[in-house]
Write a structure and sequence with these properties.
The complex is a heterodimer of chains A (115) and B (111). By secondary structure, chain A is mainly beta. Helix content of chain A is 0%, strand content 56%. Classes of the chains: A mainly beta (115), B mainly beta (111).
């Protein structure tokens, strides 16, 4: 079974609709992240959370919100989807390892299309 | 703050070498390298810490030049399996666990 799972894997929605992307992990990691990937722009950080009570904005948080329901679950919401939010979304997890290595483990991604 | 990767794309023949650079305008604490194969999630390759040694992973190695605030990824004797997009992720202090990723370098290895 995958350690980091994302649902749905693909979603097509209309402009103005509310949508939630979910991420679950069985790695026991305390840190979770949401990124979006667009061609030529790399991976851009939307929000991140270092524990259940800690939520931080990333570089491109406008138009998004998150919820950390439990250590293992981190959800990303688009309150009113717009076409330029069409992208591939990745969830990732990490924890402090040996030598303070923060290796991140990525989920399989959610491809979101807003029409 | 996003680090800049160069080149944007590379096409190689099997057995050839390549270098991918990651440059920052801000002082770096660490650089993390990831590879993403087509249709898959990014996968961690290695981390370079400030003051640390050059790292290696099979025939892939990397270095960290503190003076230039730059990291370079070296792919030696490329294999078909090296094809994909390479990302550097940068941390600017030991207090933060978040990474800022570059825009990626697409590497295609041909037979």
């Amino acid at each position: 079974d995958a350690d980091v799972t994302q649902t749905p894997r693909n979603r097509i929605t209309k402009t103005g609709k509310r949508i939630m992307l979910e991420c679950s992990q069985t790695k026991g990691h305390d840190r979770m992240y949401w990124y979006r990937q667009d061609p030529g722009l790399g991976l851009r950080l939307i929000y991140y959370s270092f524990d259940v009570k800690d939520i931080n904005k990333g570089e491109i948080s406008d138009g998004y919100s998150v919820s950390r329901q439990a250590q293992a679950k981190f959800s990303l919401s688009l309150e009113s989807a717009i076409p330029n939010q069409t992208a591939l979304y990745f969830c990732a997890t990490s924890t402090i390892g040996t030598g303070s290595v923060h290796e991140q483990y990525f989920g399989p991604g959610t491809r979101l299309t807003v029409t | 703050q996003q680090p800049v990767q160069s080149p944007q794309a590379v096409i190689l023949r099997e057995g050839e070498d390549a270098v991918i650079n990651c440059s920052s305008s801000k002082a770096l604490y660490s650089v993390h390298w990831y590879r993403q194969k087509h249709g898959e999630a990014p996968v961690f390759l290695m981390i370079l810490l400030k003051g640390g040694e050059q790292k290696g992973h099979d025939k892939i190695s990397a270095s960290f030049n503190e003076k230039k605030q730059q990291s370079s990824l070296y792919l030696t004797a490329s294999q078909l399996s090296y094809s994909g997009t390479y990302f550097c992720g940068t941390r600017y202090s030991s207090n933060t666990g978040k990474l800022i990723f570059g825009q990626g370098t697409t590497l295609q290895v041909k037979p």
